[in-house]
TrEMBL record:
Signal peptide extent: none
Residue ranges occupied by any Transcription regulator PadR N-terminal domain in the UniProt entry: 6-89
Organism taxonomic ancestry: Bacteria, Bacillati, Actinomycetota, Actinomycetes, Micromonosporales
SUPFAM superfamilies the record matches: Winged helix' DNA-binding domain
Protein name: PadR family transcriptional regulator
Originating organism: Micromonospora maritima
One Pfam family, short name: PadR
Length: 212
């Protein structure tokens, strides 16, 4: 998934390691991604060895951009190659069951703008089935064992069920938009079709979105 995300970001613009880390954290923040330099740079070296990215000229590094306990060297800028673009397209086309899980779905959803409609629809429908299965499992637990659960565990199960129901509704809206050829919309609360604070769609890969 990190490989997929790096290749996707480098299609937008060349970046050095510090920029990539910032963009990855921002882009994948929905799934609480914690990208460390110890994870990022080995992946970059692997992508470079495969011929999917290449290094451009170095630029001076600032103190803020140098990882702790390392030398203050220039920033190596990474650029995606033609082979890297082909690899990214292959990863999108090969999207399978792993993209229905929380992490896989969050990463792929972040790059839906670069994904073809048929693949987006396949991932959304697969994610909906996944969450529906999770929802039915929670309903089963609450139906059979609610009286044996303490108040806090019971509340946690109810919260999980509520989150699943919200995400299923959100996914159904996205699927309907895809089938009709419309892009997702965000109506203002209080307008026709708008959502209230308690009806916000979940962030991709998470159970629900918190609002201030």
């Amino acid at each position: 998934m990190l490989e997929f995300a790096i290749l996707g970001l480098l299609q937008e613009a060349p970046m050095h390691g510090y920029e990539l880390r910032k963009e990855l954290t921002a882009k994948l923040g929905a799934i609480r991604a914690a990208i460390s330099y110890g994870t990022l740079y080995p992946t970059l070296r692997r992508l470079q060895a495969a011929g999917w990215i290449t290094e451009a000229a170095e630029t001076p590094a600032t103190a803020e951009e140098v990882p702790a306990l390392t030398s203050r060297r220039g920033r190596v800028v990474y650029t995606i190659t033609a082979e890297g673009k082909e690899r990214f397209a292959q990863l999108i086309a090969q999207a399978g069951p792993e993209t229905y899980d929380d992490t896989g779905f969050g990463v792929h959803f972040a790059f839906f703008a670069r994904t073809d409609q048929a693949t987006r629809l396949r991932i959304l429908e697969g994610r909906r089935r996944k969450i529906e299965e999770r929802r039915e499992g929670l309903r089963d637990v609450l139906g059979r064992a609610a009286e044996r659960l303490d108040a806090y565990t019971l509340e946690l199960q109810r919260h999980g069920l509520d989150a699943c129901e919200r995400e299923v509704r959100w996914l159904e809206e996205l699927i309907a938009n895809e089938r009709s050829g419309r892009a997702p919309t965000a109506p203002r609360p209080g307008t026709a079709g708008g959502r209230g604070d308690n009806d916000s769609p979940p962030t991709p890969g998470t159970s629900r979105t918190e609002r201030p």
